[in-house]
Design a protein that fits this description.
Elements lengths: L47 E6 L6 H17 L4 E6 L4 H13 L4 E4 L8 H9 L4 E4 L10 E5 L1 H18 L6 E6 L5 H14 L4 E7 L5 H15 L6 E4 L2 H13 L16 H9 L5 E3 L2 H17 L10 E4 L4 E7 L2 E3 L5 H5 L6 H4 L3 H9 L4
Parallel strand pairs: 1-2, 1-3, 3-4, 4-5, 5-11, 6-7, 6-8
Antiparallel strand pairs: 9-12, 10-11
Helix pairs in contact: 1-9, 2-3, 4-5, 6-7
Length: about 375
């Protein structure tokens, strides 16, 4: 899927996946704000790195993050062993998986938390064993995390909100009622997406009903949208803010089930999932957010290998700081990019995230792709 170089940036300046830099350079030592954990020396059998991902309902984790991370680690440390677990949206299970990884000799934890607050106890246990923790994609709160690798997540919500507001205004529906379907309340990223969207939409539209979706579940999002349609009526809303492509898919399914053409109700998404990109081509979904997961996974892998070997941060890596309620965590924040039908070719396709063959796999999609120069 990703046959191109690891960081193939787009030509247009607005699409550059630049790392946000707020510190003037970075040494190979421990940066200000870090707890200073550098890990133990690699065991004779090779480095052990634990990758702990949160769930499978969001397609990206198994299809993108895991294989990309594993490939980069193997490139940097061929004898490394990756202790992989997915918690299936169960915080207690993730605690047990982390315990098992530490018991099995993990020298670095790369942790994407199910529950951003509850995961603090995992960090405490890791610190007791002098094992550094990289908070991956979602920020672990109120804990001495060593590093954070993610995107500017409030900006994600702002981009979604602005795209939706512009579309509503263009359609002559400024100030009218929308539905908001946010992400999981246990996910700190979901709170940031929500805050970013509200900062754009509040006062500019009427929010008829709003939900926080447990587990990021598309099925639960569909139920929420069913409830919204019952409350507002089939003509009582003009658009739907959805926090990601999975919840968007659920909302669109509910609209179709109620006899509402989703082409008439613009919806937002996130993650540039294949199904989301295909819905955009067919006109059923208005937009999504593309996040360069390859850059995110590669950065986390580079940090994990460096920490596991005790060499510190690569000198080429520049850092910002994000406060997690306890410390200012040294962070690498990548830039999200909005994608609409007009920019699929110059974003996800140009970057090798999806190929045209993967996207255009039905006659209807082939025809839709041809209309926008994808063939």
């Amino acid at each position: 899927m990703h046959g191109r170089r690891a960081l193939r940036w787009f030509g247009a300046a607005a699409l550059v996946m630049g790392i946000v830099v707020t510190l003037g350079g970075c040494s190979s030592g421990t940066p200000t704000g870090s707890t200073g954990t550098t890990g133990t020396a690699p065991a004779a059998g090779g480095l052990k790195i634990a990758l702990l991902l949160p769930e499978t309902k969001t397609a990206r984790y198994e299809t993108q993050d895991r294989p990309l991370f594993e490939a980069k680690v193997k490139e940097l440390a061929p004898d490394a062993q990756i202790l992989y677990s997915n918690a299936n949206q169960d915080s207690a299970q993730q605690q047990s998986q982390a315990d098992a990884a530490l018991t099995n000799g993990a020298q670095v934890l790369v942790l994407d938390p199910v529950d951003s607050a509850a995961a603090a106890s995992i960090v405490t246990k890791a610190k007791a064993k002098n094992v550094p923790v990289i908070s991956y994609d979602r920020l672990i709160l109120n804990a001495p995390v060593d590093y954070y690798v993610s995107f500017d997540n409030e900006q994600v919500g702002k981009l979604q909100g602005q795209a939706l507001l512009d579309k509503i205004t263009k359609d002559g529906n400024a100030g009218k009622t929308i539905v908001m379907i946010n992400g999981a309340p246990t996910d700190n990223n979901a709170k940031l997406f929500k805050a970013g969207a509200h900062s754009i939409l509040d006062g500019k539209v009427k929010i008829g009903v709003e939900y926080d979706t447990p587990d990021w579940s598309p099925d639960k999002a569909q139920t929420e949208m069913d409830q919204a349609i019952t409350k507002l009526g089939k003509t009582g809303f003009v658009a739907v803010y959805c926090a990601n492509d999975g919840t968007c898919g659920g909302a669109i399914a509910a609209m179709k089930g109620a006899g509402i053409d989703p082409k008439t109700r613009p919806t937002t998404g996130q993650d540039a999932e294949l199904a989301g990109i295909q819905r955009i081509l067919l006109g059923e979904q208005f937009m999504t957010i593309y996040k360069a997961i390859k850059a995110e996974a590669n950065t986390a892998a580079e940090l994990a290998v460096a920490l596991g070997k005790g060499t510190g941060v690569p000198s080429s890596m520049t850092l910002s700081k994000v406060n997690n309620g306890q410390i200012d965590v040294p962070s690498v924040l990548l830039t999200p990019v909005p994608v609409t039908i007009d920019t699929i070719k110059t974003t996800v396709v140009a970057d090798g995230f999806w190929t045209t063959q993967q996207i255009l796999n039905t006659p209807a999609l082939i025809a839709a792709g041809k209309a926008v120069g994808l063939q």
